[in-house]
Amino acid sequence: MIVLALGLAFDVTAAIQRSLPDYTSGVQKKIEDGDTARQQLSGLYDDSNKELSRCQDGADALRSCGQAPPIEGINSWLNTPGDRPVDLKSLRGKVTLIDFWTYSCINCQRAIPHLQDWERAYKDAGLRIIGVHSPEFAFEKKRSNVISGAKKLGVTWPVALDNDLTTWDNYRNRLWPAKYLIDARGTVRYFKFGEGQYDQTETMIRELLRQADPTVVLPEPTGRAMDDLTAGRTPETYLSTLRIRGYLGTPLVDDKPAAYRFPKDPLPLNKLSLDGTWTAGYERFTAGPDARLAFSYRARNANLVLAGTGKVTVVVDGRTTKTIDVSSSPTLYRLTDDKDPRTARLELRLDEGLEAYAFTFG
After folding, report:
1. What is the distance between the terminal CA atoms of the chain, rounded to a whole angstrom?
2. Distance between CA atoms of 311 and 327, rounded to whole angstroms?
3. 68 in helix, strand or coil?
4. Is the pLDDT of residue 306 over 50?
5. d(Cα 144, Cα 166) in Å, to the nearest integer?
6. Structure confidence by residue, pLDDT tens digits, 214-253
7. Residue 261 contacts by C-beta under 8 Å, 6 or more apart in sequence?
8. CA distance 249 to 254
9. What are the Cα distances from residue 80, in Å, to 20, 85, 138, 250?
10. Which residue would you say has higher pLDDT here, 8 or 168?
11. Minimum mean pLDDT among 56-65, 68-77, 304-313: which range?
């Protein structure tokens, strides 16, 4: 008890926690996928649509997980005749894939080519895809931003703008991207959180199409290779005073300009730091005079959501590699792009006034 008291007094437990790698990610996922936790994470605090708990993330067999919740509370629709809403009941007899996504999410972007393949391969056989755009950032609620993002990514299927996360909550969802498969009778039969297992999801699509129409003739599976760089890739990192992780250097000051300095020692892997003047906010960091940001990462490519008007100079391992012109609304910009995974020190030099939201890595 004395040792515990001393540890708490000197904040030793927090230091130990910060120094440990994320060995518990598998356990964390199991806990967060639990019925109680999912209610908290999804925003649901009652037993609404509780039958969805019968499904298991990425299960290897179809299950019956209750009637598909309605798509409701939608701000507006895209990619439909006259931007009219789609009623799930009108799709009875078809197999429906509900994709929860946002246009600036790199994980969602990596999944889109698979969705495009499935739509081309199986639309005539009865597959329908609906994208539920559930925003993570305030700028993702703006209809014009979503239209532009969807066009750049080649999203041609109907998209519902779920700005208040009503449908997100209806499905007890908690991750981007997430895919829910609904059979011809309107029952949820399978869901997959996050990236990966595309071949398995496609197998489930094919099985549901055969169940809907035993005479259907299906093409060969699409067989698109999936991204195999998962272990060791630097995780998504938010530039947010609440959600930032891996930060080293001058303590962050909330919501007002402050001077920062890089640490003297080299940055360890998956750590970032600031230099120059920055305003660190809840949703974004805004560059002031002489603003620089350093990040040690491992991935094939590094990406950053940026907004404002100005230039960003990209320096990798001490060598200037490119200058990016940033303009207008928040958009994901590719900072580095390598054929193979690499570990590198990334430094960004940002013009005053530019806003930075979140790093993602591919």
Report:
1. 46
2. 9
3. coil
4. yes
5. 20
6. 999 999 999 886 655 566 889 889 999 988 989 999 999 9
7. 249, 250, 275
8. 15
9. 48, 7, 24, 50
10. 168
11. 56-65
Cα 359 from Cα 348, distance rounded (Å): 12
Contacts of 242 (CB under 8 A, 6+ apart): 282
Instruction: Give the dihedral sign, CA 201/206/207/211.
Output: positive
Greatest pairwise CA separation for the chain in angstroms: 73
The tokens of 259 are what?
Answer: 């001077």
Alpha helices in 95-228 (DSSP H): 106-122, 143-153, 166-170, 198-212
Cα angle: 330, vertex 333, 338; to 5 degrees: 165
Look at residue 42 and tell me whether its pLDDT is greater than 60: no
Number of other CB atoms surrounding residue 93 within 10 Å: 12
Nearest alpha-carbon partner for 305 in 189, 140, 188: 140
Count of Cβ atoms closer than 10 Å to residue 68 Cβ: 24
Cα distance between residue 151 and residue 135, in whole Å: 17
Confidence at residue 37, expressed as pLDDT on a 0 to 100 scale: 38
Place of tokens 């991935």: 299
One-letter amino acid for residue 36 of the chain: T
Cα 308 from Cα 329, distance rounded (Å):
7
- Give the DSSP per-residue string, 128-159: EEEEEE--SSGGGG-HHHHHHHHHHHT--S-E
ω into 235 cis (within 30 of 0): no
Angle at 85 between CA 84 and CA 91, to 5 degrees: 120
